[in-house]
Design a protein that fits this description.
- By secondary structure, the chain is of the alpha/beta class.
- It has one domain.
- 26% of the residues lie in helices and 25% in strands.
- It has 6 helices and 13 strands.
- It has helices spanning 5-25, 87-91, 99-122, 197-202, 232-243, 267-274; strands spanning 34-38, 43-45, 73-75, 77-86, 140-143, 152-155, 158-159, 166-169, 178-191, 204-217, 223-226, 259-261, 289-291.
- The longest helix has 24 residues, at 99-122.
- The model has no long low-confidence stretch (mean pLDDT 90).
Length: 297
């Protein structure tokens, strides 16, 4: 190939097409457990976390509730993946060798939010959420008054054990248990100018993908983690605990757990609990869906 600005532009168009094709075709699961929140600054502060809206009979004037503010902040991070292609490979028409690489970059850019979201779910026993406790903890404070004041009682969304962790989630709400915050989307860029320093000094062209994003926790009340054996009894106990969660002031939250997230090692146990058997004797059949992402393994 004779290298000219026009031929380099055509090559970039071809690489970008492979990148975008794989980017669009890659399946993801993160949207099932995380809410997408656009970001327009270096970080977002979620001061409203912990403030569950509630209704009262309207008698007289409206009652404005001064809810306790939480300074939970998610700061965006930058991510990149880059590759250099020797100028000689382009001159010798070896570009076909690199097309699968750009496909893989497209796949990786779509899968990266899965990696971040499920990685944070796994870290929920050691990473803090809006109330200052670990996301999965045995002593989340719930207050006697609905303005976040008064005596607090400790509420648990974690069951101790020695086995692999499994998670029961309520994903039916506008705010899901986790948050995926996106500042800048994943996009392919190129440095292919003939007078570019890398071409002059290293005789190579550079291509890269970058994005700005971060993940964080939403409401802990919509998630439960257990490291005890995944049995019908423990599954039932987790459901009962979640459905009993109340907000500040003792108001029921109406939590409805409907997604059981497990590592591959527990997928069989999860399906035995949730899929109706031939005799119809499985009391928990159909009460939740099973999700077994490889990112938990």
């Amino acid at each position: 190939m004779i290298i000219t600005p026009a031929s380099l532009a055509a090559l970039y168009t071809a690489f970008k097409a492979e990148f975008q094709k794989a980017q669009a075709a890659t399946p993801t699961d993160w949207q099932r457990i995380a809410t997408l929140v656009p970001s327009s600054s270096a970080s977002n502060t979620y001061g409203w976390l912990g403030q569950f809206p509630s209704f009262r009979e309207w008698m007289g004037e409206r009652v404005l509730k001064n809810m306790a503010a939480h300074g939970y902040t998610i700061t965006n991070k930058s991510y990149e993946a880059s590759v250099g292609i020797p100028r000689t490979a382009i001159e010798d028409d070896e570009v076909g060798v690199y097309k699968p690489l750009f496909e893989e970059m497209g796949r990786a850019s779509t899968a990266h939010p899965d990696e971040l979201v499920f990685g944070l779910l796994k870290a929920g026993q050691s990473e803090k959420c809006y109330d200052g406790q670990y996301f999965f903890d045995v002593d989340h404070p719930v207050y006697a008054s609905n303005d976040g004041t008064g005596t607090a009682v400790s509420v648990s969304n974690f069951q101790e054990g020695t086995g692999p962790a499994w998670y029961l989630l309520d994903v039916s709400r506008a705010i899901k248990p986790l948050i995926f915050q996106k500042r800048r989307d994943y996009a392919l860029k190129a440095m292919t100018s003939l007078d570019d320093e890398s071409v002059f000094m290293r005789d190579e062209y550079r291509y890269g993908v970058d994005a700005r994003a971060q993940v964080g926790f939403g409401f802990w009340q919509f998630a439960y983690c257990s490291k005890a054996p995944l049995t019908p009894e423990n599954y039932g106990a987790a459901r009962a605990a979640m459905k009993a969660f109340k907000g500040d002031g003792g108001r029921p939250l109406g939590v409805n757990p409907g997604l059981l997230v497990v590592p591959s090692a527990l997928e069989g146990s999860a399906r035995k609990i949730l899929v109706k058997d031939a005799n119809g004797g499985n009391e928990w059949a159909g009460t939740a869906e099973v999700l077994a992402p490889s990112w938990l393994d």
